[in-house]
Design brief:
Blueprint lengths: L10 H9 L37 H18 L3 H5 L2 H34 L16
Helix pairs in contact: 1-4, 2-4
This protein binds zinc ion.
């Protein structure tokens, strides 16, 4: 049975390079060619970035971060509950959506940086025990 992934590269460096939208290997090439589309290969060091899976992890982590750091503290302000929803909902939801969409690519970059550091590739999907029942 194959062993679980070991840390193959410096974890913190790879995550921070990914968070900044750069290749976790060299820190120079761009991670994305569109909003959330990962470059197949780094244009600088030719690292195959497409082989590191992100799946739904970045979306879950973004929801977790925004929900705990923005939405939950916001609910402690009485103005949120007392104001007219016709005015307060757009005022709250539009910036919240913009913030979430701004954070998501950063989190996805950091996620792929983490996958790179841990050496988890899309070919390791057979190690994913949650899919064993399928
Ligand atoms: Zn690179």
């Amino acid at each position: 049975m194959p062993r679980m992934a070991e840390i193959a590269h410096p974890l913190r460096r790879s995550i921070f390079r990914g968070l900044s939208g750069h290749c976790p290997a060299c820190g120079q090439g761009k991670m994305f060619w569109k909003y959330l589309k990962v470059n197949g290969r780094c244009e600088v060091c030719d690292t195959d970035l497409a082989r590191y899976p992100a799946d739904d992890g970045p979306a879950y982590l973004t929801i977790l971060l925004i929900g705990h750091l923005v939405v939950a503290p916001m609910l402690f302000f009485p103005i949120v509950w007392r104001s007219n929803p016709a005015y307060s909902l757009p005022i709250i939801l539009i910036p919240l959506a913009v913030l979430t969409l701004a954070v998501l690519p950063r989190v996805k970059g950091g996620w792929i940086g983490m996958m790179y550091a841990l050496g988890v590739k899309d070919t390791d999907a057979h190690l994913h025990v949650a899919d064993a029942a399928d």
